[in-house]
Structures are given as C-alpha cells and as structure tokens.
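_Full entry_
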Amino acid sequence: MKKAKKDVLRGAGKVAFWARKESIEKMLEAKHTLMATFLAHQKEVDIGYGQFRRYVNEFIRSKPKERKQAEKTAPKEKVKELSIHETFKTPTDKKDIL
C-alpha cells in the first residue's frame, strides 16, 4: 500500500515554523522541553519532530549570522616578509672581511 501524497508545497513547514517562531521561543525560554513545545505546535506546523528540532537549533539556538561573519572577516595581523638579502645580512665593511 502506498501512502497518500500530501498536497503541501515544499518549504511550507519552514514558513509555518517562522510564523510561530516567537511563540516557540517563549515556550523554550519558559523552560518547556523541546518535545512539549513540538507537541503544542505540531498541528499548526505540520513537520516531524526531527525537522522541528533542526529548525530550533538553526534559527533559535544558533549565533546570529552577523557575529559569525564578523569572526570570519576579522583583520589578521600582517607580517612583513623579508627578502633573502634582508634575512641574511652580512657586514659589508672591508675591514670585517680581512
């Protein structure tokens, strides 16, 4: 027996999650478990628990993207590169050679 195909557009679960994001955040801040939060929003969001968990981790618990970008693009200290002649400087006085 085949399962009946749902007439749901791709990405509809993510849109429904985003529509209820504030409510989900409030429940998690109030120390509700992730499962209790999922069960409270399950019918409205219409995604599985695994996908719900991924969305919470990606959109609620992770660092903001601005901070990640700032860490990646932080200026690094420049080191002056020396040529071979500068690295192995020897005295050029004729007195030192003799």
